Amino acid sequence: MKAKLSMKEVFDYIDSNKNRAIELLSKLVSQPSVAATGQGIKECSELVMKLLDELGANPKLNDIGEGSPVVSGEIKSKRNPEKTILFYNHYDVQPPEPLELWDSPPFTPAIRDGKMYGRGVSDDKGELTGRVKLTEAFLKTWKDVPCNFKFLFEGEEEIGSIHLSQYLKKYPEIFKADGVVWEFGGVDPNGRPQVVLGVKGILYVQLTTNVAKKDVHSSLGAIVQNPAWRLVGALNTLKSGEKILIPGWYDDVRKFTKQELELIRQAPYDAKAIKADLGIRNFIAKMSIEEAKRALVGKPTCTICGIYSGYTGPGSKTVLPSEAFAKVDFRLVPDQDPDDLVRKLRKYLVTQGYSDVKITYSEGERAKRTSPKEPIAIAAKFAAEQVYKTASIVQVSSAGTGPMYLFNAPCVAIGGGHAFSNAHAPNENKQLEYLVKGMKWVASTVNRFAEMRIS
Amino acid sequence: MKAKLSMKEVFDYIDSNKNRAIELLSKLVSQPSVAATGQGIKECSELVMKLLDELGANPKLNDIGEGSPVVSGEIKSKRNPEKTILFYNHYDVQPPEPLELWDSPPFTPAIRDGKMYGRGVSDDKGELTGRVKLTEAFLKTWKDVPCNFKFLFEGEEEIGSIHLSQYLKKYPEIFKADGVVWEFGGVDPNGRPQVVLGVKGILYVQLTTNVAKKDVHSSLGAIVQNPAWRLVGALNTLKSGEKILIPGWYDDVRKFTKQELELIRQAPYDAKAIKADLGIRNFIAKMSIEEAKRALVGKPTCTICGIYSGYTGPGSKTVLPSEAFAKVDFRLVPDQDPDDLVRKLRKYLVTQGYSDVKITYSEGERAKRTSPKEPIAIAAKFAAEQVYKTASIVQVSSAGTGPMYLFNAPCVAIGGGHAFSNAHAPNENKQLEYLVKGMKWVASTVNRFAEMRIS
To answer: ipTM for the complex?
Structure first.
C-alpha cells in the first residue's frame, strides 16, 4: 500500500470545480429519461456511457434485450487494488406530470435561490453527478482512487428495477464489491446527516375475484354471488388489527439487536410535524412515537394500495359487478422471503374458503440491512461528522424498498439529498450546497472505508 | 250505470288504427328526452301535453321548479264517474350511449322485421302510446271511458324518480285513484302474459372513510391508518353469509301469505337459461331454483355496487390512500322503511366501532305489493287470458324497484312489453304485435276492473 494521501486536496478540487459539477448536472437533467414511457432512455444511457468513458472507467452497456440497459464501469486502484467499492445509481427519472404544477419546465434546468429545479435533479441525477465528479476529484489530485471504484447505473429504478435481478444473473461481476454506496442519502430537515443502513422488502399482489361474466342489475343480488363481497371477505381474513393472520408470516422475522434498538431510540423523529403534514391526530393503533419509529424500521405491514369494483362515479347506480380486485402491498423485513410468503398467502386463502380469489404476484423484493458494526457503516458515520461538523444519525432501515438485496456486500445510503427536494413531485429541486457536501461525504466515506479494510 | 258495452268494438278500433299508433310512437321516439342530461325534456313534455289535449284530457304541466315537469290529465267517465284508474308512465328515456353499438340512430325510429328500433321505443314510450291510443279507442267507439281515466306522465323515471315524492306533496290529487296501471308489463320469453303485482324497495348508501389529508407512500402503512382497511372492516360487519347482521333489519319484513307462496311456486323460471346467460354454475349459497324464486321476490339484500380506493391502474403503485368508499344497495321488502333502516345502519356501525365511517343516504324507496285478491289483480289476470288465449303468470313482485309506493291504490304492472327488448341498451326495440296486444290487455283489464268494482 502506498503512502496515505490527504482528503484536503480532494475537497479543494471539489470546491473549486463546483460549477463544472453544476454544469454536468444541468446537462443530465436536460436529457429526459423517463423509464415509465421510455422517453430519452437510450440517449441518456449513451450520455452516461460518455461520462464514464471520460473518467477512464472503461464503460460497458449491459443489455438483456428488454427494458433499459445497465451502464457499468470500473476504475482500478493502484494503491489498493484488493478492495472495491460500488456506486449504485440510476439515470432514469419519474414522469414529469402534472406539467402545469411546475414553475419552470421539468427538462429545462433553472437555478433559483441556490437550488436547481428539474425532473431528476435530486433523484437521482444529482447523486450520479456527485459520484462521477468525486471520482474525477480523486483522479485529478491523487492520480488514483482509494480503492477500486465500480459504477452500476441502471435505467429502471423508477419502475421497480424490474429487470435488475436478471442483470445480476447475466452479468454477476458488475454487482460484486466489498461495499456499496446506495443511490440516495443526505440530511434530515434539520441538516443532520443520516446514515441509512437498510431498506424494507416488498410483496405486492393483486387479488381478483370474478363471478358472473358481465355486470348485471343489482336486483339480482338476491341470487347471484357478488365478487366485491368475496373480495371484502377474503381481505378481512388477512389481518386482525395490525397483526397479519397468515400462518408462518412472522417465522423469518429477524429480531432487532440491542444496538439496532438503541439506534432507533437515538434517531430523532418529529412526530408532531409529521402528523400535521398528514393531517392525522394519532398514529395507527394510537402507537407511541417510539413504537412508530420501530414500526417504520421493522414492522411487516399489509396495506391496501387500491381496491376497485363496479360503479364508482357520482350518485347511485344499481349494478352487481362481475369483477373486483385489490392491490395489496406487504412490506417485509429481514429475513422474510416474498416467494415463500406468496405461497403461504395462497395456501391460507384456500384454507379460509377463498380458493376463488386469484392472486397475481406483481413484485417481490427482500429487505436488506447492513450491520452498524460493518466498516462501511462506521466509515460513513465518521465521514459525516467530519464533513458536516455535527452528530450524524444512523437509520437502521428506511421504511421504503429498493433492490439493495441484490448486492451481497454491506451497503450505506448516503449522499447529497435534503428534505423538501420534491422527488417524484413537481418542482423537484437540488440544493447546490448539498451537491458539494454530499460529494465530500461520499468521497471521505470511501477513503475511510478503503483505509479501514486494509488495516 | 249505463248498459254494458262490448270490448269487441274497442278491439276492432285498436286493430284498424294500428298504423296510427305506430306513427305516434315513431313521433315520440323521434323526440329525444334524456333525463340524465336534460336533452329534449321540455320539448317532449310539451308533445305529451298536446297528446292529452287532443284526447280531451284537460292536461296540466305540474312543476315544482326543479327537474322535469310531470304532465297529468283526466277524462271523466259518464257511465262510471265514481271510479278512477290511473295510468303511470314516463316520457323520459335512458341516455342512448354507446352510440356505435346501434344499428340505426337511436332517435330515428326504424322498423325492421316487425320491430321498431329506437331509444325509448319500449321503455316507456311504447306503453305511453298504448295508454293514449286505447283511451282514444274507448272514446271513439263508446263515446265514453269505462271509469275515470287519470294520466300521470313523469320525466325522471330513468334517474330514480328523484322528485316524484315532492310532486306527491304538492299535487296529491294527481296521484289519487282506485287502481293504478304501472308503466311496464308484458309477456315472458315464451309469450305468456305476466301480471306483476309489486316491486322491491331500496336503500342506497355510500360509505366513505378518510384518514390522512393526502395520499402518501405506502411505506407509511406501518404507522398511518388505512381508510381502505377501515372500509373493508366496516363492510364485513354488515353480513354473515347472506344474512344482514344489523339489529332489527328484518323486524318489519312481512311474511309471504300462503297464496303468495303458491303463486311463486307456480311461476315458471328458466334457471338453466339464466345461469348460462350470466355464466354462473350456481346461485348464491347454492340455493335451489325454488329458493332463488322466493329470494328474488321477497329477500332483503345487501349488495356492493361499487368500491374504490387508491390506485386501480395497471401494475403496482405503492400508495396509501387517503380515502375509500363503497356504494351499497339494500333491496327492501314490505314493510321495511328505508328511513328507519338507515338509522339502524348508522347506530350499528357506531356500536361496531366504525363511527368514522361516513354514511351518505342517496336513495330510499319502500317496497310495494298489491294483493292477488285485489279486484285490479283479478281483472288483469282475467283480461290477459282473454287477449292472449293462454294461462297468465302472476308475479308477486318484481326483483326491481320503482316509485309504486307513492301511489296508495292497488297497482298492476301490465302492458305491451316483451323479452329481448334491450331496454336501457343499444338497439332498444318494440315488437309492434305486442304494442297492439298490450293495448287490448290494458283496455280489457280497465274495463273489467270498472265493472267489478261497481258490482
So the answer is: 0.90
